[in-house]
Amino acid sequence: MRIGTILPHTKLYGGVRRFLELGNLFDKEGHSPIIYTPKGLPPTWFEYKGEVKILESVLADNLDALFFTEPEYLQLALNANATRKIFYFINPKENLNLFRKHPEIEIFANSLNLMQLAEKKYRVKAFPAYGGINLKSHNPKPNCERNPLEPFVVMAYGRIARKVKGTKYVINACQRLIRKGYNIELLLFDTPVDDKMLKKNTQLKLNIPFKFIQNHPVEKNQELYHSACVFVAAESKAGWSNTAAEAMACGIPVVGTTAGTNNFLLNNQTGVIVTQDSRRIANAIELLINDESFRQKIAQNGRKKIEEFDWSCLAEKILKHLAEPD
Predict the structure, then answer these.
(1) Splitting the chain (326 residues) into consecutive groups of 10 residues, what average pLDDT does each group show?
(2) Could you tell me if 160 and 215 lie in one domain?
(3) Quick check: 151 and 211 in contact, CB under 8 A?
């Protein structure tokens, strides 16, 4: 099959990575993945094995399936010569009412959160295309026991410019714990994709011990996760929380909101669920500091749960669906 995807760019975003990972797996199975973007530039941070073409090329190609993630590309998708046309619902802010006028467009949901949103708010039935995670590049660290004499490292995604990520709540939670006398170090990481993000990150100044790792090689992010004692995902809205899934795959206990985590974060089983509130986040971290056996238990359970969502499982599910009659 020739499987195309329209994307706004190939920069480091979770929604972009989804199609790069899937594309490589489609290629491995003998299919032909093609990504179309306005500039037609391949990713510089990921080894993608498919083709990358300029946006207009989609009108000249014959495709078995065409994915897109931005409603602005609806008309382009409608005009494309593709047997199956699929809107992949990855951003909870998108309005699906637009697609009720076009029954020829299939809807995929990349998480349980978004599938429920599609059905409840828009009365749109979506195909459950949940996931994923690359288990080959995210492995549990051999020894998850921590040295109580060393700082308790709290890790979070450091995309300061996007308030929806909730990084400030993690910062405030760490400040609370330090005031209570805990030996805390905050670890933030990000790869800024524009000047606004770079400026916000470089201007960050805190009165607590912290490290801000920027532009770390994506293929080596496992090293960062392994240096943490807990990962906190404090997002207010998300389709699929890539960073929470990656931390869980690396055997790091996760404290998180339900945004983008409903598929794998089960309270007090595979992680600790909190609201986007610094006090509740601090309480959850404090629990993990004082109960080492519980911290290790949810880390082990989390790794086992996230194995259900390897990219290979999702790719197989999608290919099987595309092989069936529309």
Answers:
(1) 97 87 97 97 94 97 98 97 97 91 95 94 95 92 81 94 90 97 96 82 88 88 95 92 95 96 96 97 98 96 96 96 87
(2) yes
(3) no
Residue 192 · residue 214 · CB < 8 Å: yes
Please give the angle made by the CA atoms of 285, 310 and 270, to the nearest 5 degrees.
25
Reference 309, options 239, 249, 254; nearest CA is 249
pLDDT of residue 143: 73
177: domain range?
Answer: 152-309
Residue 142 domain-assigned (yes or no): no
Q: How far apart are the C-alpha atoms of 217 and 204, rounded to whole Å?
A: 21
Under 8 Å between Cβ of 232 and 173: yes
Tell me which DSSP letter residue 267 carries.
B
Quote the pTM value. 0.88
Residues 284 and 165 in one domain: yes
Please tell me the total count of domains within the chain: 2
Q: Are 63 and 83 in contact (CB under 8 A)?
A: yes
Does any domain span residue 281?
yes
CB 42 within 8 A of CB 70: no
Are the beta carbons of 322 and 64 closer than 8 angstroms?
Answer: yes
Inter-residue contact 309 to 130 (CB < 8 Å): yes
Maximum Cα interatomic distance, the chain, rounded to a whole number of Å: 64
Residue 273 corresponds to which amino acid? I
Cβ burial 46-76 (10 Å sphere, 16+ → b, else e): bebebbbbebeebeebebebbbbbbeebbeb
Can you tell me whether residue 59 is helix, strand or coil?
helix
The amino acid at 279: R
